[in-house]
Model the fold of this input.
Amino acid sequence: MSDIFDFDKPELYAVMGNPINHSKSPQIHKAFALQTGQKLEYTAIHVDAGGFAQAVSHFQAHGGKGLNVTVPFKLDAWKLSDSLTERARKAGAVNTLILDKDGSIKGDNTDGIGLVNDIIEHLGWSIAQKRILILGAGGASRGVIGPILDHRPKSITIANRTAAKASELAVFFNEHKTTQTQEINGGGYNALEGQQFDLIINATAASLHGEVPPLPDNIVNSDTCCYDMMYAAQPTAFMQWASRHNVNNISDGLGMLVGQAAESFNIWRGVKPDIKPVINAIRDSM
Ligand code: ATR
Done:
């Protein structure tokens, strides 16, 4: 009987994180729902440290169908998942949970595909056959390397303040790469001296502190593309570094944020929203 009465009730989704106040996910998913005519509710839920599993279980018990997961719970979500997609397994982190009626939890990661789609489809830059430099060797970096490799770059270099972490990531992805011809290297920033790159992706947390990793000046030319996974109303410190080095193609990560949300929406609802109008609307509201 309750199914009949609940038939018209919007299905429940949410993003969980800490802090969560400034999350743009509710605004993004409401815009997608409006655009695609989908009936759903999407809220932001603050979760205390150590309370993630309980919060998910509570949400699921109240009919929740899906969750986005943000800092600092992406690893907790990975551990909590009963099953993982291949890309989530490689990423070592989960940003999308699918909550099944039978109580099971499936974990996916749409961050990498969100980044790759923004770079290729929205910005019109290419990855195939390009020399890619990824700055940082934390969770954000690991989450995007698999989807970048799927687009067959010529090489991927991972540079990190703690060089050993970059080397470890390179070893992991060398074992999981799609073709043997791809070169994946990892090390410190000083090892970049004398090299040039076609695309640099900043996956460090340095922009949060208004800092730029110590990059040699000569690693870019005017055709290099520079992408910061962070976004802000003003250009980030890395974007300013790129401008000072006469780079013409520079972007922040707002398109990645909207893109990962669009992939999650598609997983839950089976409809892929158009991200461009939503990127523009969020940009205007910043
Ligand atoms: P996330 O999940 O966002 O990747 P993380 O796992 O804490 O977060 O990783 C943060 C990344 O930013 C790391 O690569 C870190 O370098 P270290 O591994 O050497 O700590 C990098 N990072 C943070 N602040 C930085 C700064 N000011 N300059 C350069 N790199 C920085």
User: Anything to note?
Assistant: Residues 136-141, 160-162, 165, 204-206, 209, 211, 213 surround 2'-monophosphoadenosine-5'-diphosphate (CB under 6 Å). The mean pLDDT is 94.
